[in-house]
Amino acid sequence: MKNLLLIFFTFFTLMSCEKDSAENLPLIYSIEGKWLFDMGADLPNTMYEFKDGIRYTYYADSNDLSLAYWESLNISDAIPGTNDYIFSDNILTIDLNFGNIGDYPLIFECDGNRINFQDPNSPDRYDWIRLGADFNDCN
């Protein structure tokens, strides 16, 4: 009986340590995917897609700026020219071409579906919204 209690206590202790350490890990979000440039009350007219180290840019060429419109676009619809990027430790580094490099600290909100894009050279805040994200429960 003592051995059974000892095994149970050891198992419980190990499981609770695993749970505690997993809860203390920082959340890691990905930049990969499609993001709409949030213009506040206006409808977005720009989308960025981050895929395999390349940023693609899309501009609206339609009056229909619905979710279905943005979801219908693929890489062949992007504007000519791309930008290489690296995303590490919540810093987005974009090669803007011609020797220009942008380093942007990102603050993820709403379970990684909104980016508070803090441009260190601009006092204004602007956001990117992950395409298709549901913000009903997001504060």
Brief summary:
20% of the residues lie in helices and 34% in strands.
Question: Can you give keywords for this protein?
Answer:
single chain, alpha+beta, 139 residues, Lipocalin
Strand order in the largest sheet = 1-2-3-4-5-6-7-8
Query: Distance between termini?
Result: 52 Å
In the CATH hierarchy, what is the architecture at level 2? Answer: Beta Barrel
Q: Name the overall outline.
A: globular
Q: For the CA atoms, what is the radius of gyration?
A: 21 Å
One letter per element, helices H and strands E, the order comes to: HEEEHEEEEE
Question: How many distinct domains?
Answer: 1
Structural class estimated from helices and strands: alpha+beta
Q: Helix content range of the residues, please?
A: 10-25%
The CATH class is Mainly Beta
Low-confidence stretches: 4-22
Question: Can you summarize the main beta sheet?
Answer: 8 strands, antiparallel, barrel
What is the average per-residue confidence, as pLDDT, rounded to a whole number?
80
Tally of extended strands? Answer: 8
Give the strand content: 25-35%
Discrete helix count: 2
CATH topology: Lipocalin
Give a structural overview:
With 139 residues, the chain is of the alpha+beta class. The chain has one domain (28-130): Lipocalin, CATH 2.40.128. Helices cover 20% and strands 34% of the residues. The chain contains two helices and eight strands, in the order H-E-E-E-H-E-E-E-E-E. It has helices at residues 2-23, 67-72; strands spanning 33-38, 46-51, 54-59, 83-88, 91-95, 101-109, 114-117, 126-130. Strands 1-2-3-4-5-6-7-8 form an eight-stranded antiparallel beta barrel. Residues 4-22 have low confidence and may be disordered.
